[in-house]
Specification:
With about 160 residues, the chain is mostly beta strands. The strands form 3 sheets. Strands 1-2-7-10-9-8 form a 6-stranded antiparallel beta barrel. The protein has a two-stranded antiparallel ribbon with strand order 3-6. Helices cover about 5% and strands about 50% of the residues. The longest helix is centred in the middle third of the chain and has 10 residues.
Length: about 160
């Protein structure tokens, strides 16, 4: 049936030099346009004129949780931006980050979240707990300067 909804159930993390990270969850994607509020003046009759205007856009931090696969590139990115006692290199280490959703068989890209000019504000490493059945995860919270969402148009028959 043409126009059938596809369920994206396999998500991967991509950033310059960081790949093969299976995404468990993404939280916080969003933006806010901070309105300026105030009195803009008064009319001839003395009526006060109120007008709200769009102010600066503000983008939420995005938290991405991924299955831990023993690869250290995500932690190394955080360290490159945030080492204590050394000059911080966060501006030189900004990355374009994408979270890409595929169909269950991993053959068709369904949606892509492109996060612009990112650097990691926090990193949480894997928790190793033998009493749990779930895979270990690692988590990164990234500061972003914008985003775009690209939904693929698919005609499924």
């Amino acid at each position: 049936m043409a126009g059938e909804y596809l369920v994206a159930s396999v998500f991967y993390f991509e950033a310059d030099g960081i790949t093969d990270k299976f995404v468990v969850s993404v939280a916080g994607l969003g933006a806010k346009n901070n309105a300026t509020k105030g009195i803009r003046g008064s009319g001839k009759s003395g009526k006060v004129v109120h007008q709200n205007l769009p102010g600066q856009a503000e983008f939420n931090n995005v938290t991405i949780t991924m299955n831990y696969n023993g690869d250290e590139t995500l932690h190394n990115w955080y360290k490159a931006c945030s080492l204590d006692g050394q000059p911080r290199q966060w501006d030189d280490n900004r990355k374009a980050v994408s979270v890409v959703g595929y169909t269950q068989d991993k053959s068709t890209e369904v949606i892509r979240y492109n996060l612009k000019n990112c650097f990691p504000e926090s990193y949480t490493g894997p928790e190793f707990d033998v009493t749990k059945n779930d895979p270990s995860t690692e988590k990164v919270e990234v500061s972003i300067e914008g985003y775009e969402i690209i939904a693929q148009k698919n005609d499924v028959t």
